[in-house]
UniProtKB/TrEMBL annotation:
Domain UDP-glucose/GDP-mannose dehydrogenase C-terminal: 311-414
Protein's name in the database: UDP-glucose 6-dehydrogenase
InterPro entries: 6-PGluconate_DH-like_C_sf, NAD(P)-bd_dom_sf, UDP-Glc/GDP-Man, UDP-Glc/GDP-Man_DH_C, UDP-Glc/GDP-Man_DH_C_sf, UDP-Glc/GDP-Man_DH_dimer, UDP-Glc/GDP-Man_DH_N, UDPglc_DH_bac
Keyword annotations of the record: NAD, Oxidoreductase, Signal
Reactions catalysed: UDP-alpha-D-glucose + 2 NAD(+) + H2O = UDP-alpha-D-glucuronate + 2 NADH + 3 H(+)
Source organism: Paenibacillus peoriae
Pfam families: UDPG_MGDP_dh, UDPG_MGDP_dh_C, UDPG_MGDP_dh_N
Length: 433
């Protein structure tokens, strides 16, 4: 099939490449000229394992191309996929201006029947608005569908090629049939449903995963007080198939471009119909507090942070991505700077993106994990990049001024900790040293 994907970000680029890999002809469109130039020159504007090679292969096979020309791409396409951003407005509601702009551009370029698919995460009722925006600008016939995206950053290619399910929300049976055929090569559960339910499935899924995280983080906070170990508790809970073992890793709370904005948006969606989503409000509140436990533990270990040198390992909101949107590291580093600390920070991939959000003469941007640890009074591990776990605590002790670690991701084992001189503060595990 001939596809046009509007928005070549984390979702649009990965989806476009994967649809090309399935044998479709795909044009990825973005209004950001730098992004398109980079892609055309063989570069990749985001870090995502496996993506670069897949792009190269599909471009060489003539199935994948990149452009800023929306009109020409829409004209040539049978299916147009909207994958533009839906960030939060100040009140938490989803900002639909990019969706509206893209839908209007599609409408103005219509030259025959097309199916317009929304992959962006949008509030319930948005696809009906998209239908109206387009219908008000063109007389050509078209179908709309909500096909929400469930990929995770850091494993986006695998998630897209091996999804747990595909949700197709459409009211027109022809649209459902065409989109089912498009997704069939993925050999997974394909659920066809109405548009509003499809839109809600996306928000409910993200809200549920966020709830699991805040739940286990609260259990961790209690474990710290009663002397239990949250990693053992999560293991024991997760063996119950009704609970499941995933998303039970206690830590410094969820960040990223999606859980924070989508939980806020769902609270707003409920509020708009006079329903107070009390549970989800608590999930958000717990999550916001969780990251500041790092500061509390640092103060417990060091006392006043004024003039202290604190190492930070990990700036991305999770490993294997360069995405720093709503990364816990941002709030934590801002608090440290307010408390008068000096910071030595390192991330394998995300430093350049992070520096666009926060830069200060009080922060030294290190080129390696070891360099960040040098001379520090304490070290905070905020993102569980694999390379951090490979550095022995004995070696780290040699580099640092004091052997104090706040491990926000429970990376080191009890055995490693007990054999080391470190004063080690983890999340929800008993004090071991
Ligand atoms: P992103 O910010 O990485 O990419 C969006 C892209 O759209 C940008 O490159 C921007 O330049 C482009 N764009 C905006 N308006 C345009 C227009 N009119 N024409 C052409 N290009 C335009 O965003 P993202 O992270 O890929 O997220 C996109 C959507 O997918 C959001 O609704 C998000 O909630 C949802 N989602 C994201 C993820 C994720 O892991 N990032 C996963 C599932 C769903
Ligand atoms: C999440 C969902 O997992 C995807 O299904 C969804 O498509 C996406 O949001 C979206 O809608 O954008 P993502 O944000 O990329 O994906 O990454 P996750 O792996 O879900 O991690 C999110 C945050 O939760 C990270 O900060 C991570 O550190 C944290 N987390 C995750 C925990 O603290 N504990 C866990 O057990 C799991």
């Amino acid at each position: 099939m001939k596809l046009c994907v509007i928005g070549a970000g984390y979702v649009g680029l990965v989806s476009g490449v994967c649809f090309a890999a399935l044998g479709n002809t795909v044009v990825c469109v973005d209004q950001n000229e730098d992004k398109i130039h980079e892609l055309r020159a063989g570069g990749v504007p985001i870090y995502e394992p496996g993506l670069k090679a897949l792009i190269k292969d599909n471009v060489e096979q003539g199935r994948l191309s990149f452009t800023t020309d929306t009109a020409a791409s829409v004209e040539a396409a049978e299916i147009v996929i909207l994958a533009v951003g839906t960030p939060s407005l100040p009140g938490g509601e989803a900002n639909l201006s990019y969706i509206e702009e893209a839908a209007c551009e599609v409408a103005d370029a219509m030259n025959g029947y097309k199916i317009i698919v929304t992959k962006s995460t949008v509030p319930v009722g948005t696809n009906e608005r998209i239908q109206n925006w387009i219908a008000s600008r063109t007389n050509y016939p078209f179908g709309v569908a909500s096909v929400p995206e469930f990929l995770r950053e850091g494993s986006a290619v695998i998630d897209t090629l091996q999804p747990d399910r595909i949700i197709i929300g459409a009211s027109d049976p022809h649209v459902s049939t065409v989109l089912t055929t498009l997704h069939e090569p993925l050999t997974t559960n394909i659920v066809t449903t109405d548009i509003r339910s499809a839109e809600m499935i996306k928000y409910a899924s993200n809200a549920f995963l966020a709830t699991k995280i805040s739940f286990i983080n609260e259990i961790a906070n209690i474990c710290e007080k009663v002397g239990a170990d949250v990693t053992r508790v999560a293991h024991g809970m997760g063996l119950d198939q009704r609970i499941g073992s995933s998303f039970l890793s206690a830590g410094i709370g969820y960040g990223g471009s999606c859980f924070p904005k989508d939980t806020q948006a769902l609270i707003q969606i409920a509020g708009n119909v006079d329903y107070e989503f009390k549970l989800l409000k608590s999930v958000v509140e717990v999550n916001q507090g969780q990251r500041f436990n790092v500061i509390r533990k640092l103060k417990e270990a060091l006392g006043d942070l004024e003039g202290a040198t604190i190492g930070i390992w990990g700036l991305a909101f999770k490993p294997n991505t360069d995405d720093v949107r709503d990364a816990p590291a941002l709030d934590i580093m801002q608090s440290l700077l307010e408390a008068g600390a000096q910071i030595r920070a390192y991330d394998p991939i995300a430093t350049a993106n992070f520096r666009r959000l926060l830069d200060s003469s009080e922060v030294t941007w290190a080129d390696s994990a070891r360099e960040a640890a040098e001379g520090c009074d304490a070290l905070c591990l905020l993102t569980e990049w694999e390379e951090f776990g490979d550095i022995g605590l004995g070696e780290l002790n040699e580099l640092m001024k004091y052997p104090i670690m706040i491990d926000g991701r429970n990376v080191y084992s009890e055995e490693q900790i007990r054999q080391s001189p470190f004063a080690y503060y983890s999340v929800g595990r008993p004090q071991m040293n």
